[in-house]
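Reminder to self: tokens first, then the designed residues, so the page reads top to bottom the way the pipeline ran.
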């Protein structure tokens, strides 16, 4: 764990554009996180999403929020 922290600091110092790039990165996972937990609980295939979308849209939603938007 300590090694990872050291590397992170080193990378930051070496690459200045690394910090700004890391910010948008974590922003993407959070959006996927809320969508990921409900999928396993909903049991895809057994029951459609509570969003009221057809079962056809269920797969895209599980893949990624971006895919769902494109399918919509």
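Designed residues (72 positions):
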């Amino acid at each position: 764990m300590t090694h990872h922290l050291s590397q992170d600091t080193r990378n930051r110092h070496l690459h200045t554009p690394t910090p700004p790039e890391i910010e948008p990165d974590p922003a993407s996972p959070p959006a996927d996180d809320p969508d990921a937990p409900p999928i396993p609980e909903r049991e895809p295939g057994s029951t459609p999403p509570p969003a009221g979308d057809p079962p056809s849209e269920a797969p895209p939603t599980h893949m990624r929020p971006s895919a769902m938007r494109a399918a919509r």
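Residues 2-14 form the longest helix (13 residues).
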